[in-house]
């Protein structure tokens, strides 16, 4: 299966934070969700995909090409949507189209008009007077109008009302019918991922914890609930993280068989949601 984005042992260091030794593959033809707590490194990674930041070590390639030699060819095939992507805020959409369209070989005026109509966007109103949702729609309309093969979005649904969020997910799903497109987007709204994502990459404190299919994640992780007295130094080894509550414990495991053998019917084992996994792994893994 072809990778449209590859990180090979990528490190980016800031003064107080680093993204470390990342190996990430983004497969063509799928929707990839990118999750992690505030400050985990998602935007940093996305900026490296877009060549807005350069790695200190390792390599990022997009469509099998390197930014050093093929920046234009790569950017031509990417649609980038992010919060605050309104670089021409005093202009209206008609002017933006005039400025942006010549930059793309595959710009499609009819498609742009179609999205403007579908998203009910005014052409003559200056972008700075758009609501947050309208700005996101405008950004998306531009990103989609040059037949981008790879859509990269940094928190595209943040701050959008539930109705438009669902509409947006519908638009993205339609885009995927093409079969050749790839979407990679960061989000804090895990229900959006359950709706449309095929793969989830999870970054925690600058380290990639996993990049797996939703199916594998659901199969691999489980949430275990039981009485705190069941825990001791040995039994705890079955868990990656334990949350002790006054009513009992709740723990994350990847060793469901071990848990069943150790605890039998004395615990409840449930499927772990993405939120459960993020919550439990946020503080780091205690046992693997
Ligand atoms: N240019 C920079 N200089 C120094 N530190 C930076 C820079 N850009 C990001 N950081 C730091 O890197 C860390 C990760 O930031 P990043 O924006 O990648 O996180 P994020 O996962 O996108 O977070 P959020 O979900 O809150 O948007 C933060 O601690 C941030 O302060």
UniProtKB/TrEMBL annotation:
UniProt keyword annotations, A-Z: ATP-binding, Nucleotide-binding, Transport
GO molecular function: ATP binding
One protein family per Pfam: ABC_tran
InterPro entries with a match to the protein in the record: AAA+_ATPase, ABC_transporter-like_ATP-bd, ABC_transporter-like_CS, ABC_Transporter_VariousFunc, P-loop_NTPase
Domain ABC transporter: 5-230
SUPFAM superfamilies: P-loop containing nucleoside triphosphate hydrolases
Lineage: superkingdom: Bacteria
Protein name as catalogued: Sodium ABC transporter ATP-binding protein
Natural source organism: Terribacillus saccharophilus
